């Protein structure tokens, strides 16, 4: 119990004293996961919309792939991104392995199926003829997509929360493609793993609490927006 | 155009030839020829699955044409996005469900105008006048989620008329309405169609609606138009069991 109490004390100490290393790690975590979430939103919403509004042979199989992708294990993503970015790999010439860019790529791959799946479900739950109604009002395809996004903004906020939550808390891919390099690619999850393995439980607990608070803050803001919209 | 000419000699505003739509190898629509003149009102009647809604969607260029041609004011509607959008911007469609957006009544009625990039002051003027016409001015700031079925239908109709369509497509506009609301709404549509001179094509199950609102009636069955004539002709000389009131499966 002392260890946990010490950890909590340490967490608040690090927070209140604005410890530069912890602040740097927190900022990098937010930055990498934020950028990855934005990228996954662009790709995921586009794919989700396209699949939801199209009819083509093999569509059910594609939907199954998307649903499977929603539970994509981060370590598997980390493994394949590492192989692709490895010096001799197909994208080795980019020389971005063990950089925040590689971490963003891996996290985008993890979040994209989550966003795609939720978008697909959200659009499929809209009235069947809504997209035809929008087109009949004279909308271009782009205007129609934008209106459909606005019409499904509540579930799409869930997609943002799920996507961000999925990547800010993952550790497998970040360690594999980021390398946990101090001051460069060390994020909250990888730092927590490292401190735990060193037996520095107080710092590990502190980092864990900061991670939880971060997730809580982001989700409180998004939930506030979502529930405000629902009650409007 | 040519307003001094008697309506009967006007060229068709909308014409379709050799329309064929198949789904899973089954023909759902087979229309060798269809046309409607400017300012006229035509009803499509027939049982469920007759192809009424499919024909409306096809004529409104909302369904991909597998075979055939559609002409609007003599110009062929091709598959290019620019032609399709220009054509769709001259029509309006009201579906069976109101299909309102998650916005206020005002914003719903304004949606077609906003899509066209009309200036805000013009939108305000047009929308307020339409809200007045359909008796829903008092609901302008209410969320579309909080409307009754009748109010939602009125909003949907006001949205359709707001863009001053040259052709209005109505797909079962009075379904799921109680009798008094249906009667009031029918009066509103009838009055607005006449006042605005809008050409209208309506799909309905109800012969009485068709008789009241139409200059012509087209009877459909299994994807084909089996009879098209003025209402009196349809009543007096029904060409098939579909229009024979004594037949148990007749449209009533």
Automatic annotation (TrEMBL), chain A:
GO terms for biological process: transmembrane transport. It holds the Pfam family BPD_transp_1. The keyword Mitochondrion does not apply. It is found in: Cell membrane; Membrane. The chain crosses the membrane at residues 65-86, 98-123, 203-222. Keywords: Membrane, Transmembrane, Transmembrane helix, Transport. GO terms for cellular component: plasma membrane. It is a multi-pass membrane protein. It comes from the Bacteria. The keyword RNA-binding does not apply. Residues 26-222 form the ABC transmembrane type-1 domain. Belongs to the binding-protein-dependent transport system permease family. NCBIfam families: ABC_perm1. This is Tungstate transporter permease. It comes from Candidatus Desantisbacteria bacterium CG_4_8_14_3_um_filter_40_12.
